[in-house]
Amino acid sequence: MAPAGAIQAQIEITVTATAASSVMRVDRPALWQTLPRDSVEAFSSQAMVQLILRELTPGQLMTVWRVT
């Protein structure tokens, strides 16, 4: 069953062969609804922006700047 409101989905699998004769079997891929990876919401009355970032890798850099 697809997640609510989904219009597309993607499954990424990273594998490493341990020998030339290695075989990969995918038994049961599944999809489930998750929260967005990032979101931004502006609050004009408080002159602020809420920036939510999920699944960040330790040491990952991001630059945020203000444009007026």
Can you walk me through this structure?
This protein is mostly beta strands. The protein has no helices and two strands. A two-stranded antiparallel ribbon has the order 1-2. The mean pLDDT is 84.
Produce a short descriptive summary.
The protein is mainly β and 68 residues long.
Biggest sheet character: 2 strands, antiparallel
Low-confidence sequence ranges: none
Query: What is the average of the pLDDT values?
Result: 84
Q: Measured on Cα atoms, how large is the radius of gyration?
A: 19 Å
Strand arrangement in the largest pleated sheet: 1-2
Distance linking N and C termini: 44 Å
Helix-strand category? mainly beta
Order of helices and strands: EE
Helix content: under 10%
Key features?
68 residues; mainly beta; elongated
Write the layout of secondary structure elements.
Layout: E1 38-43, E2 48-53
